[in-house]
Amino acid sequence: MIRSSEMTFGGKNSFLAILFLLFIFNLRCISYAIEITPKKQLRYAVELMRQKEYELSASELLRFIYFFNDHPLVPKAYIFLAICYIESGRYQKAKDTLNTIKERYFDTSIYQDALFLEGICLFKEGNLRGADSLFKDLIDLSKRDDIRSSSLWMRAWIKAREAQWDKASNLFKEIKGNNLFISSSLLLSDKILEGKSLPKKDPKVSGLLALLIPGLGHLYCNRPKDALLSFTLNGAFIGATIEAFRDGNDFLGGIFSFLELGWYAGNIYSAVNCAHKYNRKIQEDFLGRFYMGDEPHVKDNKIMFLSIRWEF
To answer: Largest Cα–Cα distance in the chain?
Structure first.
């Protein structure tokens, strides 16, 4: 004979099971209702990128590539992914992604976008020579006006970084056509020549002054605190050396002489280095007048990849 309590317990279990099945069914219905299309997924990833959420954007782009791997926008997603890696400083990841693009889409126009971004990657890594060579090849070989203009723009900034002001000006002048660069490049072709008249310190003069009097080279480079420190330290060791020899303590005098030789040489090296630092600072401040962020931009663009077509 079945007890009523057992029937009640069994009834509760059945009721809970039915509720659970209804819940699962509703979830499936909801999932169908809010199904994400490929374009929505990609737009969301690009919007994150515009907001500088590069890590999140990269995750969404990888998700897009995985779930919609046969979609025609996958090459574009790879390009955006490379941009995210570059902007977040993950240069090796960016290079790997760009190599994937070049291998899979070598016979398409997007191959040139990959080459341009490879140049950007080298530029941000500080490999100016490699970047300049790549941008030069794109200028010579590409038939796309946007790629040529972008490459001319980047080459001009590379030459400016190298203080080759005339070459930078000429490259800005070469930018033609109706594009985002044209108005800025015309202005910069003249303004960049002001770099030729920047006040500089001669490293040879700085080193010679430091050779004559410790600290004088630092003073020449507008570093009075460093000048005082160098003069004081070298003066103290020179005084101690003279005093040791005067007292007949040749061994101690020899030690002080050896130490002073190191300080004296260091004073000269430091003075020369200060001149180079001074010149770099003056140049960076000058170029900074034309920057909107960490790298040169045009108008309100916050990403230096203006050759990339964002519409899809």
So the answer is: 120
